[in-house]
Write a sequence for this structure.
């Protein structure tokens, strides 16, 4: 009986920790292009991106007339996203990060040696990571939702 209770307690502790673990997401699944059917000017598109980013808690700076860099920081984690836009579309692409778990490879057999923490280690040869901590997808999805909300009000 005592062993059964002990095993049950161990099972619940393992289940608790497993529930806290967040999976990784492939950056190819997160980098997105969005086309807008509503006629807008390029200035309106940029304004919507800036409003959406601000509402989602991102800081934005201009890189060139068609591109902005958005930065999100929470606790020790920082991510940088490049947003390219025209009058009818915009795209969100991972640029860099600090203190985010990433895999540099998609090969299952190389996963252990491919795990890095950005800002501490980088992928070999400055290649972009293959996958990143799932929190990144949550933050990007919120950014995109807020941009879409801002676009809908135009």
């Amino acid at each position: 009986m005592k062993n059964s209770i002990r095993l049950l307690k161990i099972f619940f502790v393992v289940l608790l920790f497993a529930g806290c673990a967040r999976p990784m997401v492939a950056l190819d699944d997160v980098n997105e292009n969005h086309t807008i059917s509503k006629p807008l000017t390029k200035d309106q598109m940029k304004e919507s991106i800036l409003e959406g980013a601000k509402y989602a808690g991102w800081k934005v700076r201009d890189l060139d007339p068609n591109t902005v860099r958005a930065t999100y920081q929470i606790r020790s984690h920082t991510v940088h996203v490049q947003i390219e836009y025209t009058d009818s579309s915009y795209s969100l692409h991972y640029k860099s990060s600090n203190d985010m778990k990433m895999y540099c490879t998609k090969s299952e057999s190389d996963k252990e040696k491919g795990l890095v923490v950005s800002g501490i280690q980088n992928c070999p040869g400055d290649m972009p990571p293959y996958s990143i901590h799932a929190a990144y997808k949550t933050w990007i999805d919120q950014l995109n939702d807020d941009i879409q909300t801002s676009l809908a009000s135009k």
User: Anything to note?
Assistant: The helical segments are 2-20, 27-30, 42-56, 111-114, 135-152. The longest strand covers residues 89-98. The radius of gyration is 20 Å.
